[in-house]
Amino acid sequence: MPGPWSVTPEGVVLRVHLQPRASHDRLVGFHGEAFKIALTAPPVEGAANAALLTFLAALLHVPRSCVALLSGAKSREKRVLVSTAAPVQVIQALERNLARVDKKMGDD
Questions:
Q1: Residue 103 has what pLDDT?
Q2: Maximum distance among all alpha carbons in the chain?
Q3: How does DSSP assign 19-80, residue by residue?
Q4: Consecutive 10-residue runs of the chain (108 residues): their mean pLDDT?
Q5: Whole-prediction pTM value?
């Protein structure tokens, strides 16, 4: 699966590199061919995975029940499914958020 996302019949599959125990929750940008997301949650007993799914649901404006971990439960490299009948809306939300990350990086 090249790139940070792919569209499937079920919705959009995201590749995520997770950084737990960060100072605050945020979309950092890219890490190779994955999105880098920093979260304050520790990588203990699934806390970081649960926080990731909640964070992505809020970021993409979809119900939490539409976001599921496909692989990487015990790894920083994860695959997440965003179940949706409108994958274009999810991709547009990702692009809007990435544009904000780029703008912040340019302001430094």
A1: 64
A2: 40
A3: E-S-SS-EEEEEETTEEEEE-SS-SSTTHHHHHHHHHHHHHHT--GGGEEEEE-TTSSEEEE
A4: 84 97 94 95 95 97 97 96 95 89 58
A5: 0.90
Structural domains in the chain, sorted by start: 5-107 (3.30.1200.10)
For residues 1-25, b (16+ Cβ closer than 10 Å) or e, as one string? eeebbeeeeebbbbbbbbebeeeeb
The pLDDT score that the predictor gives to residue 1 is 43
- Per-residue burial over 38-65, b if 16 or more Cβ lie within 10 Å, else e, is bbebebeeeebbebbbebbbebbebeee
